[in-house]
Amino acid sequence: MNNKLKVGICFLIATWLFTGIKCGDEFYEYSLFLKYRPTFQYYFESPLGMQDMPENYPKELAVKEAIYDEFINEKHWSDNKFLEISTCGILILGSLYFLTSGLIKQFRT
User: Looking at the domain assignment, is residue 38 inside a domain?
Assistant: First the structure.
């Protein structure tokens, strides 16, 4: 395994841990965002949408709503749009570049 492929795998793992896809709770549009801490969950969607939480809401969905609120609705250091866009772009493009160039080099030799 060559060095570019190793770096590409590291970029891919960092991309998986520090970026995510969120589904907006009002209009259900999708967008990429930078997570404030690493987690294996990649897709974030609010099970309630814009509704208030009822008292007899199932526990599993209440946990999903709490995770959505923690990563999407609360303010963190990663809410800076320039930082979010540039870091997500670097991680995704770095993953693509190093993985493709590493795979090409791996199969050519």
Answer: yes
